Amino acid sequence: MGLFGRKSSKVSADSESVTSSNGRYFNKPLKSPASSKLTSNGHLSMSLPDVTLPRPPDPNLDPAAYLRSIYAVRERSRYIFDKARRNQLAHFDVDMAKFKETATYTVSIIKRDYAPDYHLIPAHGRWQHFEVGGRPRVDQLLATWPSTVDNQERTRRLIDLFLVSVLLDAGAGTRWSYKSKETGRIYRRSEGLAVASLEMFKGGLFSSDPNQQCRVDAEGLKQLTPEQLAKGLQVTAANPLNGLEGRAGLLSRLADALMNPVYFGADSRPGKMLDYLISHPSTLASSVPIVPLPTLWNVLMNGLAPIWPSSRTSIAGQPLGDAWHCKSMPASPPAQPWETIVPFHKLTQWLAYSLMAPMSKLLHIQFAGADLLTGLPEYRNGGLLVDTGLLTLKPADMQRGLEAYRINAQLKGQPNMEVVPLFTTDDDVIVEWRALTVGFLDELLREVNRMLGLGPGDGLTLAQMLEAGTWKGGRELAEVSRPNTKEPPIMILSDGTVF
Known about the structure:
By secondary structure, the protein is mostly helical. It has helices at residues 63-68, 70-85, 99-114, 126-130, 137-144, 151-167, 189-202, 218-223, 226-232, 244-257, 261-264, 273-279, 293-303, 346-363, 379-387, 395-409, 428-452, 462-481; strands at 30-32, 51-53, 92-94, 178-179, 186-187, 284-285, 289-292, 314-315, 318-319, 323-325, 341-343, 366-368, 391-393, 422-424, 491-493. The strands form 7 sheets. A 3-stranded mixed sheet has the order 6-7-12. The longest helix is centred in the last third of the chain and has 25 residues, at 428-452. It is globular.
């Protein structure tokens, strides 16, 4: 029996709903509605049947599971966004009069690059970064594999590549660049890391099998040294990469995580999650497989849990990953300890967006409930909100951030021009900023679709707006506002495992 040769199954869910301690219903079962629209490659996607999605965990019974769920990201960020509407934030002033200007700018970027063919906008994901310079590198890679490699194995290999590439995709800094071995062209930032990871992948740097270089497995990652990674990324004293040690540590811990045969098979490959997803009881085997987004999410959150630093926020000894305490949340006591935490899971969401692309394009797998994913809370999307004047850092925080920048600028190799406030990842300023980014991106999507004249049937998805508008727009504004460094308006001191 082939990969898709199994009986149809249906997701079951209890209809019970539970009220959270802040008065919101968080445990009501959700349904992914039937839909049909043009995909990014111009083909008409099938109309999906209703799929009942699993309920989010009850935070009063299992707060760690709730805060690790995708449901918690939007719900907990909304608490801070509601304060923004009233301009009652701890660290930012909000000028809602600038909201329409932010939307107008976003729409101008989308129209410039895609009008009138908005249906051709791809979903935000790593695939597009591989195509920097107009070169279809993923398609070219696929063409190098013999016809005996079927679509299932091709998809597994792309999942291998995309997962490692996303984990390496933290902020590179302004001084790093990568010269392609294949074209001699120089690339920077996310696109540079994409091209570098692709060329390392093709060179077998992540594989333990010399006869199959285009794969990632646990043994190959265990054999990878920080020095080999630095060489592969062309890091030198004159070409420094922010967070290199953090990235090397992340890949080392990934090797341990891949030893879980439930998610990653006997040969410990990221790509084997495909087999797990297809055979999962929640997957509907209709004319094409329909995978509930929470099923993919659980693979990424549970299967990759060992890769995150143990120093991260935890509850009852359970690490939560990219989740942080925030003073704008309810204080504990009287609130429960979990209520002080805002989860973002940015890299996990970036993985989900990115891994859905090869599964959809090669195997036509559909993902029910993909709109549970939020806008990515990172400095390009968030920088757009600051550079357009929608958000302004309060004076005391601005002064504190500028002093931190001054101290950091004295270190060798650190930026020392186009001064901006600087904070660490866990600083309350950054946590509040990221939560606001999640909330405002949802609001922007509604306004952008309205301004484009797009309705419920043909409107942009959040993933499309990220790709064509806010992420790109945030980067372009940074380049214009700070042409020497191209840094965001607020600088984040990161270890390479969040941004």
